[in-house]
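Researcher: Please translate sequence to structure tokens.
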Amino acid sequence: MGVQCLFAPARAADEPTEADVTRQAILYDAAAPTGGNPKGDLNLVVFFDYNCPYCKRSEPDLLRLVKTDGKIRLVYKDWPILTPASIKAAQWALAAKYQGRYDDAHAAMMAIPGSKIPEDQMRRAIVTAGLDMDRLDADLQTHAGDITTLLRRNLAQADSLGLQGTPAYIVGEYRVTSALTYDKFKHVASDARARQAKP
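Model: Translation complete:
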């Protein structure tokens, strides 16, 4: 398990740009979907790809930690780097956010086992999850520029953090570059909180 400390000081910013790699943009990008406790005392950022089997393996333990801990703010960074279908999946998930269904689209695609999942199988999973597909397609077209900007920003942020692949996690001030079990997530979260508590 590779755990390293990171982050330069934050700078004040308005709306993050396509290339904004500041701490503020990584943790508090208003365009990035979030979960968990919005007022949590610990930020946990996950960089993932819908075709990453290791992301899928860690996802239940990640969500278990967020639920049982109760004080973690989860930030999703769609980082489609594995296949062209990964890009389409990320676009669909982010378009689903406009109908308040990002979590449903995300869960549906993360539940598909394996890697190199074709686009049509991912789309069927979203349909099965009950999303309004006409609205999703319309939102994807209407918000294409914003979605593309967010995906490019996520890529720039991953590059700035030296990430090499998925999954990758930012837990408080730590970067973790491997899939984790529930116990390891708990351990890193505890260490991150202890570090935050230091003056």
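Researcher: Any highlights?
Model: The beta strands are 3-5, 34-36, 42-48, 72-78, 168-171, 174-176.
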